[in-house]
Amino acid sequence: MGIAAMLGSPIKRREDPRLITGQATYVDDIKLPGMLHMAVLRSPYGHARIKSINTEAARNQPGVVAVYTAEDLKGAVGDVAVAVPLGKMTEGMGIRKPLAEGKVRFYGDPVAVVIAQDRYTARDARDLIEVDYEPLPAAIDVEKAMQPDAPLLYEEFGTNVAFSMHPSTEEIDKVFEQTKADGGVVVKTRMVNQRLAPVPIETRGVVVEYHKALKTLNVWSSSQIPHLLRNILAATVGLPQHQVRVIVPEVGGGFGCKLNVYPEEICAAYAAMKTGQPVKWIEDRSENLAATIHGRDQVDYVEVAATKEGKITGLKIHGISDLGAYSQLFTDVIMIAFGFPVSCGAYDIPNIYLSGDIVFTNKVPTDAYRGAGRPEATYIAERAIDLVARELGKDPAEVRRLNFIKPDQFPYKSAAGAVYDTGNYEGALDKALQIADYQNLRAEQARRRAAGNGKLMGIGLSSYIEICGFGPKGTAPVGLYESARMRVEQSGTVMVYTGSSPHGQGEETTFAQIVAEEYGIPVENVMIIHGDTDSTPEGRGTYGSRTTAVGGSAVYEAAQRLKEKMKQIAAHMLEASASDVTLEDGKFFVAGSPQKAVTFAEVALTANLSNTLPPGIEPGLETTVFWEPDACVFPFGTHVCVVEVDKDTGEAEITRFVAVDDCGRQLNPMLVQGQVHGGIAQGVGQAMWEGVVYGEDGQLLTGTLMDYAMPIASELPSFELDHTVTLTPVNPLGVKGVGEAGTIGSTPAVANAIADALGVAHVDMPFKPENLWRVIHQA
Amino acid sequence: MAMKREITVTVNGKQYHSSVEPRLLLVHYLRDVLDLTGTHIGCDTSQCGACTVLLNGESVKSCTALAVQADGCEVTTIEGLAPEGSLHPIQEGFWEKHGLQCGFCTPGMIMASYQLLKDNPNPTEEEIRKGLEGNICRCTGYQNIVRAVQYAAEQMRTGTAEPVGTGD
Question: How confident is the model at residue A727 (pLDDT cuts 50, 70, 90)?
Fold first, then answer.
């Protein structure tokens, strides 16, 4: 590059050379002297009482160092952490021990761990552990699990429902009655947001090393949250925080599922502390599908009321969130805290009613998966708009237009509670319709319908919004800031230590661009260091599309602070007043006199080496910024999906996918597009193919990638992307966030296209040929 | 534990003599015995292709091959695709076209692309998508992977591809 990389340039990623040559270090690439391997024995039942465990044969196996069960862990380690326990969870319901005690509650529930000299021996020995189970009936279907006669996961609570909120319906009922009286419509439907597996291509993994003399624990983990992991793990194993160091090496994807502290991490730490030898655990894919958190799994009863013109007067949602068997970090709050506040979507809906139940079932816990609550809420809003359009015989694009929050209404407080920063929803819709050539698509569809032969064509829209950049003061149990420690070395190289922790997003590149832009220096002169709790300041981690908006803002503010100090030093060097000094293209000079300048590197050298700095100026150039936003940011956009469905086979194909996204200012458009591509593929994956399936007895039927249908290259179209730019005043960069937008926006676009193709009000996902064939042939 | 077997395998041009358990997977041999950790494991059941390497010049999924099956064979892994300090046009394409995010599927994706371009030096987009069906990427939506392979195909066809420095 050689010259300053302006923000907004699509520069190539600096992460890539190590990744494309096989030189990167992921957690499974770490090898320590004397390292032992852990294998986990898991429940083969969805629900069973543990009558006895016999580990003797496993312990006696050559090469086995230890076998641990819940008995060993009792009193030595704490429970699995839950951020905000709701309802009966405050009394212990759903709180998880690292290894199952008394009962197993889902297929894959960890029962024992084997520590051995190599991974093959550990697995051989695992197979020698004898567990006597008494199988119990399982609660699998979430609505059946709420019934009085359902099998109970936690008998002492007498129910599987952990928490309910059922406010009075009096007001919304009045709105609905009035709407009907005025000649409007009320449309109802039940929709299922099916359970998904996150499936990062790198599974989870951890290496733990314990120094007995120092009582320090070094933890290498494939994690999105190094500091939270350190803080929680320290508390769980009973060490002071400063004696635990978490290092996050290269991470092969997270999508929310590595935003947790899992039983296996606790067991590996315990084993390392007991044996005094390093312990490695690497999850295999079957374990990953069975025991890493799942996402979504929400059933919604939706009623929407609208005038005969299509203006929505009220939205009533009853959501049932399937928690699975235990609560992980955010399991219980996904629907209520992340979904409900954005239930109105991009629309000015004056009345909303939200009620919900969160329910334990004999499945792996659900938690944050790309979008976390927001895809479910968006799916409801976007489907509701189409239901109204269908009922009134109107064009869904026009119903959207009629209901959009208008640009002059921002900041906009939604009836569902969220305060939206900025937006121009109609602008994104118009652009998407233009790119898709919407009028012609509709005309073609009309022609094909009139002809009555060939494939069924459907067109679906989704004008999504997203809430991200968590989070403002007072909205979470802890401050959700991000941090940056910045040091300008005497060479002029800028070292940035960020508390954020990327796993594929390319922050090493974009954060360097922020600093290079501010200082007018080559991007190569900026180093971004992340993922080590001993060197980086405390951060909350990378999730919820928050890293650029919050972490990037911390970097920006740190650059500002050091710039001010460098101006003072430059003023001293130039014998001028600091207030007159300006920095442009890597040079400090008195405004109007660029011919007499000192370079960024010269000022850095002086700051670090000079013994004649003026009084009051401390040597060195280093600062730490903690940046906490005052508000959330709301990216948005419109996606258009065109599908063709074969009437005879039920097979659906996406023939076009247009996405116009607005994430505010784009720091690196190439990386933004990459995020959108990947996001759309995941959202399309949910709509078309993906779905975790359990049998009624609790057996996992999608236990390998042979059964769990991941999107592959040949099934996806080439996405047509464009964008609009609506800045936000919430942060100094004007950025919003784009990590989840594609996933949130795309699923409803596909769902609306399928319903449109089939000419029905609603079809539940995934749109596999069998499911669509049944709908076509019922009609 | 079964009796160990002697094998001789040439990996990235270097010959290794090893004594291995008959059940040892080729991918574990490469990663754990030879310390060539660029080849990754993503699924254990041959779906994801993260473990793709070349065995006697043909791409195989090394999580479903045994080390003993590679006895007497030549293996090329991502580490051996281009001379040290330079990039193969496919690697260059992935960098140039942002064909990777987390990078975990990338070594396997690159090795599968190598086979694809060997069989078909001038593939259409559809042929690229079909040819990479056995490799799963969760990050990119494949669009930029297609572009990366197209870029590499162009470079390799015009024969202008010189090894490219990694900028170190």
Answer: very high
Report the number of distinct structural domains present in chain A. 3
- Which residues of chain B does A20 touch, with a Cβ-Cβ cutoff of 8 Å? 78, 87, 91, 94-95, 100, 103, 106-107, 110
Q: What is the pLDDT of residues A583-641, one digit of tens each?
A: 999 999 999 999 999 999 999 999 999 888 988 999 999 999 999 999 999 999 999 99
* Residues A643, A604 within the same domain: no
Identify the CATH number of the domain in which residue A64 sits. 3.90.1170.50
Asked if A23 lies within 8 A of B38 by C-beta distance, the reply is yes
pLDDT of residue B1: 57
Nearest to B136 among A18, A21, A710 (CB): A710
**CATH at residue A529:** 3.30.365.10
Tokens representing A415?
């009836």
Tell me which amino acid residue A601 is: A
Average predicted confidence (pLDDT) for chain A: 96
Q: Is residue A762 part of a domain?
A: yes
d(Cα A52, Cα A728) in Å, to the nearest integer? Answer: 59
Using pLDDT thresholds of 50, 70 and 90, give the confidence band for residue A5.
low
Contacting residues for A622 by C-beta, under 8 A, at least 6 apart: A485, A486, A487, A488, A562
A708 and A746 co-located in one domain = yes
Residue A474 pLDDT > 90:
no
Helix and strand numbers (H, E) in chain B are 5, 7
Domain with CATH 1.10.150.120 in chain B: 86-160
Summarize pLDDT for A501-524 with one digit per residue, the tens: 999 999 999 999 999 999 999 999
Q: Which two tokens stand for residue A12?
A: 């190539």
What are the chain B neighbours of A200 within 8 Å (beta carbons)? Answer: 102, 104, 138
Domain match, A620 and A644 both: no
Name the phi and psi angles at A626, rounded to 5.
-110, 120
What is the per-residue pLDDT across A639-688, written as a single tens digit (0 to 9) for each? 999 999 999 999 999 999 999 999 999 999 999 999 999 999 999 999 99
Fold of the domain built from segment(s) B86-160: DNA polymerase; domain 1 (1.10.150)
Provide the domain limits for residue A572.
16-22+472-627
Length of chain B, please? 168
Beta bridge pairs of residue A318:
A301, A355
Residue type, A542: T
Chain-chain contact of B42 with A201 (C-beta, under 8 angstroms):
yes
Q: B36 and A22 in contact by Cβ < 8 A?
A: yes
Distance between A507 CA and the closest CA of chain B, angstroms: 11
Q: Is B105 on the interface with A (CB under 8 A)?
A: yes
pLDDT at B164 over 70: no
The candidate with the shortest Cα–Cα distance to A597, out of A587, A583, A605, A585, is: A587
Is the pLDDT score of B167 beyond 70? Answer: no
* The domain defined by B5-80 carries CATH number 3.10.20.30: yes
Domain contains A561: yes
Mark yes or no for CB contact B82/A25 under 8 Å: no
For the whole model, what pTM was predicted? 0.96
Cβ contact, residue pair B100, A203, below 8 Å: no
Residue B168 has a pLDDT of 43
Q: Where are the alpha helices (DSSP H) in chain B?
A: 26-28, 89-96, 106-119, 125-131, 143-158
